[in-house]
Amino acid sequence: MFREMAVVGVGLIGGSLALAARKAGLVETVTGVDADPIHREVALAAGMVDRVAAGLGADLSRAGLVVLAVPVAEIVSLLPEVARRVEDGCLVTDVGSVKGPILAAGDAAFPDGRFVAGHPIAGQERSGPAAARPDLFEAANWIVTPSGLTNASAVERVSALWRGVGSTIVSMEAGWHDEVFAAVSHLPHLVAYALMDAVLGLPLGEERLQFAAGGLRDFTRVAGSHPLMWRDIFLMNRGPILRALAAYREVLAALEEAIRDGDGKALTARLARARMAREEIPHRP
Amino acid sequence: MFREMAVVGVGLIGGSLALAARKAGLVETVTGVDADPIHREVALAAGMVDRVAAGLGADLSRAGLVVLAVPVAEIVSLLPEVARRVEDGCLVTDVGSVKGPILAAGDAAFPDGRFVAGHPIAGQERSGPAAARPDLFEAANWIVTPSGLTNASAVERVSALWRGVGSTIVSMEAGWHDEVFAAVSHLPHLVAYALMDAVLGLPLGEERLQFAAGGLRDFTRVAGSHPLMWRDIFLMNRGPILRALAAYREVLAALEEAIRDGDGKALTARLARARMAREEIPHRP
């Protein structure tokens, strides 16, 4: 499908894509680009990539596809350099969790429409190439957010790769993607971080945490995610996150008022409605 | 240890205690009291109890121990009736998640100090007797919150039962218990309910929920808990919950400000601190 694929950022997502694409025979050669020497060593040793490089250098000239799998702010800042280094036929895609600003930067860097903005909905608690798995994208959704500029055949070729590693393709407008994920992913992470920070900050916070059971433990996976990756997501998707947060703070204030007033009826109505929301979430393995 | 134990409320906790105490040979006969005919039927059929009753009736006269395993508001309202129906030597304990108001009501109903306020830190997603398991309390903490009035030998006898089903006994002052669990259990539940309610309430909320992955799914177990049980906990532990909520809202406002101002440094500091809080939580199976 692609003779040579370059993966920039050999972490959980980039490493898993390299493993999966090789396993499925979708690529012949994979170059891994990563500033972290341990990432490079693990990626080589685990057979994810054929060769590694610390920076973009000249390594992209033979690539038929470049996948940007670094934190979202880095994707935006790398795009102009990638555009200078790849050949004319090379397609470029990304895996970032925020799409509007990345799509704008990608369209600016590739005015011929070769940039395909994407977001695979897959992840897990651990990060880095040591956590990579060839089956990470099986039964996952891969969201693609083409613009008016994006080349339809580029979308089709990149989609075929993601289909080949087991994902289902979902096409969405980039702005709506960012609103959706502000609500179902970015806000939950923000809320979990805030909760853990608040509990630790209470008098004798550490002592209290000794008694944490299921209720709090469910939040810890979320708040245990990579702080710098999430800082960038929060800053880059500022508008949609602030809108979702405003709605959340309104609900929280209403619950607080019901508790303060001892209003059991209002409380029951809200708790029952929240419980219903859960039924809307599709069950996946 | 006790010839006859009466369990009022044969749900997950009451049913599991009945199963575990019988299995460990700590009780001879168990009476299950539950207003729900399905709970009574399941408890009898599963061999959790020897006989069942829909209400307190005369069934408590032979009991050496009465365990109140109903929602917290019901525990408080049942205590005076239990006091009228049991014999003088009978011990009474509870499993409620809020201890201050229950301890006060128990001391008022049993001025001779026979009421032992307790809280086993065990639970799971599903509720009801069908979810009960004899190993639910193995390696769990059982918190006891005696008052100045509580009879020390009553505490020792009830503690021996909980030790016998595998729990570790932790003694705490009731007011501190309620502050601790407001932070590590009640607030997380409130936050999870608020999040699910807020996301569902956004424009096209149901459609957004179709894209929920790990981040939000970790919240759903918590917000899936029994709404009426949690309503009562929120109302009964109002003071400590409102204090913990105030601290949480402060942290949330600071995070919001950092996002709005694009202050990456402040955001990183808070996210890293929140991540550290997670390391404080003990790992249990």
Order of strands across the widest beta sheet of chain A? 3-2-1-4-5-6
Largest sheet of chain A: 6 strands, parallel
The CATH class of the largest domain in chain A turns out to be: Alpha Beta
Describe the oligomeric state of these chains in a short phrase.
Answer: homodimer
Assess the beta-strand content of chain A as a share of residues.
5-15%
- Low-confidence parts of chain A: none
Spatial extent as radius of gyration of chain A: 21 Å
Task: Record the SSE blueprint.
2 copies of one chain form a homodimer.
Chain A: E1 2-8, H1 12-23, E2 27-33, H2 37-45, E3 51-53, E4 65-68, H3 72-85, E5 91-94, H4 100-109, E6 115-116, E7 118-120, E8 141-144, H5 152-164, E9 168-171, H6 174-201, H7 205-209, H8 214-223, H9 227-236, H10 238-260, H11 264-279
Parallel strand pairs in A: 1-2, 1-4, 2-3, 4-5, 5-6, 8-9
Antiparallel strand pairs in A: 7-8
Explain what this protein looks like in three dimensions.
The structure is a homodimer of 285-residue chains. With 285 residues, chain A is α/β, with parallel strands linked by helices. The first copy, chain A, folds into two domains: 2-172, NAD(P)-binding Rossmann-like Domain (Rossmann fold, 3-Layer(aba) Sandwich); 176-279, Orthogonal Bundle (6-phosphogluconate dehydrogenase C-terminal fold), CATH 1.10.3660. Helix content of chain A is 53%, strand content 13%. Chain A has eleven helices and nine strands. In chain A, the strands form two sheets. In chain A, strands 3-2-1-4-5-6 form a six-stranded parallel β-sheet, sandwiched between helices. Chain A has a three-stranded mixed β-sheet with strand order 7-8-9, covered by helices on one side. In chain A, strand 4, helix 3 (72-85) and strand 5 form a beta-alpha-beta unit. In chain A, helix 3 runs parallel beside helix 4 (100-109). The longest helix of chain A has 28 residues, at 174-201. In chain A, 54% of the residues are buried. Chains A and B meet through helix 6, helix 7, helix 8, helix 9 and helix 10 of A and helix 6, helix 7, helix 8, helix 9 and helix 10 of B.
